[in-house]
Write a structure and sequence with these properties.
Layout (H helix, E strand, L loop, with lengths): L4 E2 L4 E3 L6 H8 L2 H4 L11 H16 L3 E8 L3 E10 L7 E8 L8 H17 L3 E7 L3 H9 L3 E10 L4 E10 L19
Helix pairs in contact: 1-3
């Protein structure tokens, strides 16, 4: 299975131990961490190594695939990933992503998410995608709508950095799809 995604502007690849300090620097910023479900704040380097182990287990179980997103000059700038919703035969996947603040508003999130969706359709047979963002992160909603996602409602999701549950907007692609186990899915942030 192909675990490297190449676009004109980005390389998406499995995480490496050398990425730890860069993740701590970028995802450790509270303004980034609070927009994610599973990113702690403060972000100790041990959490990055733990995340690497989680990504290895996710790939081994064919349940979750997280990619380091790198730009040519800057190196690692964020993360994007997918996690399966339902059993191993399910064609419904949740997408998630985060990018360091210096890379917000530059089109990286939409490019990475589009490439990730193409990869998941090609490599994993995905045909329905779910996604979400905290209500105070409308920029992520703009990314999802740009990709053709449609809003399906709201849901309270937990954020490790916020240490609380907060309102979130939920989305689905394509419009009108019937995802597997939607009623039982509590939303995830596959990127981290």
């Amino acid at each position: 299975m192909l675990l490297r995604i190449q676009t004109l502007r980005l390389t998406m690849r499995p995480f490496e131990p050398a990425d730890a300090s860069r993740i701590v620097y970028l995802a450790g910023d509270y303004d980034v961490a609070k927009m994610c479900g599973r990113v702690p704040n403060p972000y100790p380097v041990a959490a990055a190594y733990s995340f690497f182990e989680i990504t290895e287990r996710g790939r081994a179980s064919d349940h979750e695939y997280a990619f380091a997103v790198a730009a040519p000059i800057d190196g690692l700038i964020g993360s994007a990933g997918v996690s399966r919703v339902g059993d191993r035969k399910a064609a419904t996947w949740e997408i998630g992503y985060w990018f360091g603040m210096p890379y917000w508003g530059l089109g990286y999130a939409s490019k990475a998410a589009r490439a990730l969706m193409d990869w998941a359709r090609d490599q994993k047979g995905a045909n329905v995608f779910l996604a979400g963002h905290f209500a105070d992160n409308p920029a992520s909603g703009n990314v999802l709508r740009k990709l053709g996602f449609v809003r399906t409602g709201t849901q309270d999701l937990f954020s490790l950095a916020r240490r609380q549950t907060s309102p979130a907007e939920r989305y689905m692609w394509p419009e009108g799809a019937t995802p597997v186990s939607l009623a039982d899915h509590h939303g995830g942030h596959a990127a981290h």
